[in-house]
């Protein structure tokens, strides 16, 4: 019997992936990096409300895009008859798969929004308090209630700023009592609660309540019933 001729080794230029394979790899890996960084940035910009979800999606995008790009570079892959069509399909459908995953995993990975907080303090002289309040983007409306429990020799002044710095509720009182803002349209982001003493001494509890779309704000807010954020 005549021995079968030995298969000639491929030249170096024959071992290089074709142009379409390189293009698909670059799109998958480059797109994964861009999408991953964008997702992480969005997680931080929203105040961390969706950081767990965006972090998971970013990891999946980076790892998945890198692995798929490496798969397309394999000779056993790009020599298949349907490799080009399949590779293009991966480039197109991988982002869509991430979007579908976000729709399914979003409710599981995103904690429910915080809907209540209370800031309590005792001020002396011209002391001021500036308290950050992170409002979840899912909050649709909110309200404040200030209860001045002690006020001696002066007045207590306050104003609440939205993320753009605009004052949304303010007042100045020279006597103890309870004062409410009424419903305020919510804007997601970092709010600031500012309380300034113009008295010898003042004590207060400032309650905040938020409600998502379709929910009703409480008629009265008591700090003991809300998530407490106290300040000595």
Descriptive terms for the model:
232 residues, alpha+beta, Jelly Rolls, 6-stranded mixed beta sheet, 10 strands
List the helices and strands and how they pair.
Layout: H1 19-45, H2 51-72, H3 75-78, H4 83-109, E1 116-124, E2 128-135, E3 139-152, E4 156-161, E5 167-173, E6 177-180, E7 184-185, E8 189-197, E9 201-212, E10 228-230
Parallel strand pairs: 1-10
Antiparallel strand pairs: 1-9, 2-8, 3-6, 3-7, 3-9, 4-5, 4-8
Helix pairs in contact: 1-2, 1-4, 2-4
Provide a descriptive summary of the structure in words.
This protein has helices at 19-45, 51-72, 75-78, 83-109; strands at residues 116-124, 128-135, 139-152, 156-161, 167-173, 177-180, 184-185, 189-197, 201-212, 228-230. 24% of the residues are buried. The longest helix is centred in the first third of the chain and has 27 residues, at 19-45. By secondary structure, the chain is α+β, with helices and mostly antiparallel strands. Helix 2 packs antiparallel against helix 4 (83-109). The strands form two sheets. Strands 1, 3, 6, 7, 9 and 10 form a six-stranded mixed β-sheet that branches. A four-stranded antiparallel β-sheet has the order 2-8-4-5, with no helix packed on it. The chain is built from four helices and ten strands.
Short description:
Helices cover 34% and strands 32% of the residues. The protein is α+β, with helices and mostly antiparallel strands and 232 residues long.
């Amino acid at each position: 019997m005549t021995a079968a001729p030995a298969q000639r080794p491929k030249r170096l230029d024959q071992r290089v992936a074709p142009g379409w394979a390189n293009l698909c790899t670059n799109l998958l890996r480059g797109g994964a990096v861009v999408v991953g960084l964008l997702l992480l940035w969005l997680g931080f910009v929203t105040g961390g409300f969706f950081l767990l979800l965006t972090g998971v999606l970013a990891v999946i995008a980076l790892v998945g895009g890198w692995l798929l790009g490496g798969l397309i570079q394999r000779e056993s892959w790009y020599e298949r008859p349907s490799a080009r069509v399949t590779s293009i399909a991966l480039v197109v459908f991988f982002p869509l798969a991430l979007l579908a995953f976000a729709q399914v995993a979003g409710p599981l990975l995103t904690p429910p929004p915080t809907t209540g907080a209370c800031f309590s303090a005792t001020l002396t002289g011209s002391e001021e308090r500036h308290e950050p309040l992170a409002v979840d983007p899912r909050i649709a409306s909110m309200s404040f209630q200030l209860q001045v429990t002690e006020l001696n020799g002066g007045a207590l002044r306050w104003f609440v700023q939205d993320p753009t710095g605009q004052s949304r509720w303010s007042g100045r009182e020279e006597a103890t009592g309870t004062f409410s803002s009424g419903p305020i349209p919510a804007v997601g982001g970092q709010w600031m609660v500012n309380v300034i003493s113009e008295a010898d001494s003042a004590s207060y509890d400032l309650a905040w309540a938020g409600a998502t779309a379709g929910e009703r704000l409480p008629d009265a807010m008591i700090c003991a019933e809300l998530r407490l954020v106290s300040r000595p």
